[in-house]
Amino acid sequence: MVRRGLGEALPVAVRDDADPDSAGVAVEDSPQRLHGSFRPAAEPIPFEPRQTFNLRPAIDELPEEQSLAIEINGRHVATLVCSPVGATELALGWAFGQGYFDDPAQVHRMTPYRDRLALMIDRPGRGGESWHGLVASGFDASSVMTSRRISCSTDEPAGSQGPHFDRALFLVLIERIFARFRADVCAEAIHHAAVTDGDHLCAVSRDVCRHNAVDKVVGWTLSQRLDRSRLMLCLSGRVSADLAYKAARAGFAIVASQSLPTSEAVEMAHAAGITLVGRVLELQPEVYAHPWRLTGHEDES
Prior knowledge:
The chain is of the alpha/beta class. The chain has two domains: 66-121, Ubiquitin-like (UB roll) (Roll); 131-295, Cytidine Deaminase, domain 2 (3-Layer(aba) Sandwich), CATH 3.40.140.10. 22% of the residues lie in helices and 21% in strands. A hairpin with a 4-residue loop joins strand 8 and strand 9 (201-207). Helix 1 crosses helix 4 (210-223) and helix 5 packs parallel to helix 6 (263-272). The chain is globular and about 65 Å long.
């Protein structure tokens, strides 16, 4: 097989019905996807005049990003690209999510440097737990170590101590939290994560990467020794399988996002006992798993 360069176009066969030699070319009459794109239509693309480009946009308020090296017990384990704020919480949440420790008491010291952060952990775990392996194996929720086990029942368990949010209160909280997200400078260029206990907005994080934003709020809750099974996690970005894994690992009971989750994320939420809500800013938010935590009003179809 001859490998083609990245800039070399693939050959495209063109059929001319008037040419008998082209009768054997396999080109369907109906539109087909060719190399990941739709087959071009016969109609020309109409020209629509628009405003001119801004060739000198301001860059002073654009979000910054930097590399952050993470060391555990003197050994380099990862380098993250992140926003420069909240590096300590990011490193703490990332190390927890990767399985290097299960109890915050294991972390004896965190030392920040200019472009790296060193953690000293007592009896560190092997780390590098992969959500990819969990997805491939069908995701066994018991394999995710959390500080407090979340019930995995589809219906409300008898005597459950998990949090319950009134639906009207839930919507009010969502409006407040996402209004805070939108008020941030360059909100369109960064991702946000927030945690709330139902009465107060406990913490808000921002980062150029949505995974880092989640790790930052997880790290903050670890430093504050909070019970995350009593908290709701709100995200400005979509909930993918790896973020659902982070939420399960941290022990959050409710995860809400303004976007749609992936199907694998829904499977993880079901298995881990997480109430997963998508499209929270729409007129009818969609509850994909464990709706019993949202109480009030009659059941909705």
